[in-house]
Amino acid sequence: MAPQPTDQRRYRRQTEQRLLAGVVVILVVGGSGLIWIIFGKEASFSSLLCLIPGAIVIVVLWLVLNGIERLTRS
User: Fold this and answer.
1) Residue 8 falls inside a structural domain
2) Domain span at residue 51?
3) How many whole angstroms separate alpha carbon 49 and alpha carbon 31?
4) Is the pLDDT of residue 2 over 90?
5) Is residue 62 part of a domain?
6) Cα-flanking dihedrals φ and ψ of residue 65, to 5°?
7) Helices 31-39 and 41-73: angle between axes, nearest 10 degrees
8) Number of compact structural domains in the chain
């Protein structure tokens, strides 16, 4: 039997989404966790005021680039 054809575009899209989620989680959870360990609880909560908007910027940039890619593809 012949192997099933693979959908490389869907695979790439899933991989990009997983990488984006991993980067956001590592940035917010890992960054605030390290700050908690080094500087304490109060500093960790304060750091979320910077880390969460930073994660939002990354997601917005990814959405913009993804939208440009879709526009150029059609």
Assistant:
1) no
2) 23-73
3) 12
4) no
5) yes
6) -65, -40
7) 160
8) 1
Residue 9 domain flag: no
In this structure, what token pair is assigned to residue 7?
């959908």
How far apart are the two ends of the chain, measured CA to CA in Å?
Answer: 35
CA atoms in the 13 A half-sphere facing the CB of 40? 2
What is the DSSP code (8-state) at residue 29?
I
Q: Assign 1 a pLDDT band (cuts: 50, 70, 90).
A: low
* 9, 10, 15, 17: CA torsion to nearest 10: 110
Within 10 A of 34 (CB to CB), how many other CB atoms are there?
A: 12
Angle among Cα 68, 70, 74 to the nearest 5 degrees reads 120
pTM for the model = 0.81
